[in-house]
């Protein structure tokens, strides 16, 4: 594995044996992650566990590995297949448009491979970056494509606390407008719903108003995934920046079933107000409710 220092973190080059990986995320067959690690460093991200599996000395958000042969491997896999790989999701444990993509262009090269070899494949991208607009020309060549933007909070100061390396929410909304204007389907993933901060009535109403104004017609929501490492970070951030919401976080962690039940009723009323269909999101929330006693977490997209 070759490595080089970049910025305040470490950007390394590595190689992979497989590109298309089976996924258990509902509605998708395969995922594509041309990078490991993520410079966005979101404090609530469940993918932080990768740092521990890889025995990384630095924390989540401080290292990224670019799989430099990823597009080549993907082309080989697509050529060998007689049947299309089904629905493909870009970015399940990383953001495929994080800053490293500017240098390596791995995501763009993957989209080009799909456009050339499997135009019929349904492709979905989930990102926090407006860099996806760079690849609008390739996206237009795909018959079935959509782009999802994760927007957890509208308030930029609050977002900077939880997502220190990610582009501001306003940039994501502007990117959504641009893609919609070019005929590309866009949806927004409001996740995770941060207790007392992101799921507060005023916060959600403001966010949904902004999403609606951007022209987005489809949204999905997901509750917080209470992985121990994420909870540790969140408790510290809540104490330092959102002390009034600390009790909301603790209520969620210790009485998850009751909290999600009440939240579900409030979200349904809000969805009706803004004319959004949240049926798909309820499947995740119901899963979380069923497993709250067992302390299990739903399968989430990053």
> Count of helical segments?
12
- Within CATH, the superfamily carries the name Aldolase class I
Count the domains. 1
User: What's the number of extended β-strand segments?
Assistant: 11
Overall pLDDT score: 87
At CATH level 2, the architecture is Alpha-Beta Barrel
Provide the helix percentage. Answer: 40-55%
Supply the CATH class: Alpha Beta
Labels describing this entry:
single chain; 302 residues; TIM Barrel; seven-stranded mixed β-sheet; globular
Describe the structure.
With 302 residues, the chain is of the alpha/beta class. The chain has a single domain, classed as Aldolase class I (TIM Barrel), CATH 3.20.20. The protein has helices at residues 49-53, 70-80, 100-104, 106-117, 136-139, 156-162, 169-181, 201-213, 228-241, 246-254, 256-274, 279-291, and strands at residues 2-6, 9-14, 21-22, 30-32, 35-37, 63-67, 87-90, 122-127, 144-150, 185-193, 218-223. The strands form two sheets. Strands 3-4-7-8-9-10-11 form a seven-stranded mixed beta sheet. A four-stranded mixed beta sheet has the order 1-2-6-5, with no helix packed on it. Helix 8 links the parallel strand 10 (185-193) and strand 11. Helix 2 (70-80) packs parallel to helix 4. The radius of gyration is 19 Å and the shape is globular. The two termini are 26 Å apart.
């Amino acid at each position: 594995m070759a490595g080089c220092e970049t910025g305040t973190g470490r950007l390394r080059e590595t190689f992979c044996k497989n590109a298309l990986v089976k996924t258990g995320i509902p509605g998708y067959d395969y995922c594509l992650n041309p990078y490991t690690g993520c410079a966005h460093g979101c404090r609530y991200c469940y993918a932080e566990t990768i740092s521990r599996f890889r025995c990384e000395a630095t924390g989540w958000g401080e290292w990224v590995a670019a799989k430099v042969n990823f597009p080549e491997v993907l082309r080989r896999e697509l050529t060998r297949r007689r049947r299309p790989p089904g629905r493909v999701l870009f970015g399940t444990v990383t953001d495929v448009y994080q800053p490293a993509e500017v240098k390596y262009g791995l995501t763009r090269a993957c989209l080009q491979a799909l456009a050339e070899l499997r135009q019929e494949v349904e492709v979905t991208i989930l990102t926090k970056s407006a860099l996806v607009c760079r690849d609008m020309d390739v996206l237009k060549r795909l018959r079935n494509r959509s782009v999802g933007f994760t927007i957890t909070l509208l308030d930029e100061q609050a977002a900077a606390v939880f997502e220190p390396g990610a582009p501001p929410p306003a940039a994501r909304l502007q990117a959504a407008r641009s893609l919609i204007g070019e005929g590309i389907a866009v949806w927004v993933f409001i996740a995770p719903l941060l207790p007392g901060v992101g799921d507060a009535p005023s916060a959600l109403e403001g966010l949904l108003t902004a999403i609606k104004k951007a022209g987005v017609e489809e949204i999905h929501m997901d509750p917080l995934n209470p992985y121990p490492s994420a909870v540790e970070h969140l408790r510290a951030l809540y104490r330092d920046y959102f002390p009034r919401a600390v009790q909301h976080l603790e209520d969620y962690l210790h009485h998850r079933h009751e909290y999600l039940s009440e939240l579900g009723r409030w979200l349904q009323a809000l969805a009706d107000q803004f004319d959004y269909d949240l049926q798909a999101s309820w499947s995740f929330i119901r899963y979380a409710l069923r497993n709250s006693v067992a302390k299990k977490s739903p399968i989430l997209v990053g």
